[in-house]
């Protein structure tokens, strides 16, 4: 498929586009439908590698009624820090809020690479803070950057969720450098605001060591679920709250595998729960920290009972298909998938494509998933 950003029908009930990009590294997409009907995608991009000071937040737009994504433009502005993991939230008044991380640049990889864990311990995520920018014109221009969370190690991957009582709830985690386990002791929390972001209270999620990237879903008034990535590369986990997020149960495993990579969980208009993820796991020890290189296939699972069972699972991206020890290194990564449902009912997915060389956008229906 050409990397020209043109959305084309596949003839199989879906449409796809690979977004144009001049950058070597493209990762961690987030996608939103704006109030004016445009789609806006943000991700981090650069020409070296994740964690370096050239990594910036970029955005691309698919205007309502158009079929081609625009070329990406940078929308973050720190020349020193590595800016990563952007998410978007549009307020009722139309103001568009961008949140992203900003960390000290990583050190020399050759000096800090740990062969025992196969992870570069110099990513310096423990130095990160979360920053924000506001746009009053649907992302065409942005106000000056503000600091949202200055706690060292602050990281995000899911947007603010607006609850039925008007509260805003923002899921995040604290990244901790911890020797050979390498960020295995990360823990999650939520920030809650009752005044549309002017003030916030923090609520830790108990027992969340190694459970990160929480995604918040409201099922009824004040009844919430949070679905997590696992540093143990074992399963997707879930925690629940019955009091608008003021207290949480300890995360428990679901029956969906996780490869210690990002997931996205949303509630569909039908009432079903949808999760997009890499259907792969590398262990079953909930206390371990494992970093497998496998980040494929991209799968979508549907649940009709709030994540307790998953009667529908379908592969959206199968990957390159190389098997055997001698060939498995040839498989590229298809990772950090995103999912949302537009007002017209169509489901939109995005993920870093083919070893982070570009962003891929896929449009599908719920009926395509159920077959």
Automatic annotation (TrEMBL):
Residue ranges constituting the Sialidase domain according to the UniProt record: 37-348
InterPro entries (alphabetical): Sialidase (IPR011040), Sialidase_sf (IPR036278)
Species assigned in the record: Cohnella candidum
Alphabetized CDD domains for the sequence: Sialidase_non-viral
Protein name: Exo-alpha-sialidase
The organism's place on the tree of life at top rank: Bacteria
């Amino acid at each position: 498929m050409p990397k020209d950003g043109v959305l084309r029908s596949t003839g199989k009930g879906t449409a796809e586009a690979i977004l144009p990009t001049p950058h070597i590294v493209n990762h961690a997409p987030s996608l939103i439908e704006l109030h004016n009907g445009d789609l806006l995608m943000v991700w981090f991009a650069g020409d070296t590698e994740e964690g370096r000071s050239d990594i910036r937040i970029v955005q691309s737009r698919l205007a309502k009624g158009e079929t081609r994504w625009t070329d990406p433009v940078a929308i973050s502005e720190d020349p020193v820090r590595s800016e990563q993991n952007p998410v978007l939230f549009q307020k009722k008044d139309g103001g568009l809020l961008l949140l992203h991380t900003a960390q000290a640049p990583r050190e020399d990889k050759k000096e800090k690479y740990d062969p025992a864990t196969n992870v570069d311990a110099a990513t310096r995520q423990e130095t990160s803070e979360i920053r924000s920018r506001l746009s009053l014109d649907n992302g065409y221009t942005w106000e000056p950057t503000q600091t949202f969370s200055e706690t060292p190690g602050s990281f995000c991957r899911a947007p603010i969720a607006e609850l039925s009582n008007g509260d805003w709830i923002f899921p995040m985690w604290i990244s901790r450098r911890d020797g050979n386990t390498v960020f295995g002791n990360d823990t999650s929390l939520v920030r809650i605001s009752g005044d549309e972001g002017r003030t916030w209270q923090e609520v830790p999620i108990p027992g969340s060591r190694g459970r990160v990237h929480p995604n918040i879903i409201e099922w009824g008034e004040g009844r919430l679920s949070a679905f997590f990535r696992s540093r143990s590369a074992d399963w997707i986990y879930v925690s629940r709250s019955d009091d608008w997020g003021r207290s949480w149960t300890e995360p428990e495993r679901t029956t969906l595998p996780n490869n210690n990579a990002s997931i996205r969980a949303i509630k569909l208009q039908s009432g079903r729960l949808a999760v997009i993820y890499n259907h792969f796991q590398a262990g079953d020890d909930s206390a371990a920290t494992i970093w497998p290189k496998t980040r494929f296939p991209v799968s979508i699972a549907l649940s009709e009972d709030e994540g307790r069972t998953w009667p529908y699972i379908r592969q959206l991206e199968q990957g390159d298909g190389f098997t055997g020890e001698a060939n498995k290194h040839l498989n590229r990564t298809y990772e950090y998938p995103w999912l949302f449902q537009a007002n017209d009912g169509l489901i939109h997915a995005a993920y870093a494509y083919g070893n982070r060389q570009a962003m891929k956008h896929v449009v599908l229906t719920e009926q395509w998933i159920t077959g």
